Amino acid sequence: MLYSCGSDTAVNTVNETILYEEQGLVDSAVVTGCYAYTRSHFLRDTFNFSSYNMIKIEFDGLSTSDYSTISVLSNNAIITNEVLYRRDNDSVNNYHSFEVPSPGDSVWIELRLYMNPQVCGTNEFKFIRARDLKVTGIK
Question: What burial class does residue 7 get, using C-beta atoms within 10 Å of its C-beta: 0-12 exposed, 13-18 middle, 19+ buried?
Fold first, then answer.
């Protein structure tokens, strides 16, 4: 039989800091016909992620359109519209949580909602929305 004097408890050394949080409806778009619509929501002026190794972004998405896309993009002085995350169609209707390497400093984060209903009837509306958004920095 083997015995150990050490502790079996694992130590979590990950340091997470909430950098931005918006509870409830963050943004939405509605159409009442069969046409494409894009809505962009910038989270705030700029972020400085340079002191973090990774960032985690979480939100809840939902759409009633048969063709829709929800994506998160980053923009800075050098690179614009860099897609950090994208989900299409049925994958939009989920809780989204993802981690990406730190995009650096002076970064604008954009939540982009897109829909293009292919099937719609008279006076029928289609929508896409995002709720409960949180951005966390991970050291």
Answer: exposed
| Total number of residues shown for the chain | 139
Q: Within 13 Å, how many C-alpha atoms sit on residue 31's CB side?
A: 23
How far apart are alpha carbons 41 and 52 in whole angstroms? Answer: 23
Q: Any idea what DSSP says for residue 67?
A: S
For residue 74, the one-letter residue type is S
Q: What angle do CA 46, 48, 52 make, to 5 degrees?
A: 145
* Token pair of 106 as six digits: 């002076």
Q: Closest Cα to residue 78, out of 108, 51, 99, 54?
A: 108
DSSP state of 6: S
Pairing of strands 126-138, 16-31: antiparallel
Say which amino acid occupies 56: K
pLDDT score for 85: 97
What global pTM score does this model have? Answer: 0.84
34-56 confidence digits (pLDDT tens): 889 999 999 988 999 999 999 99
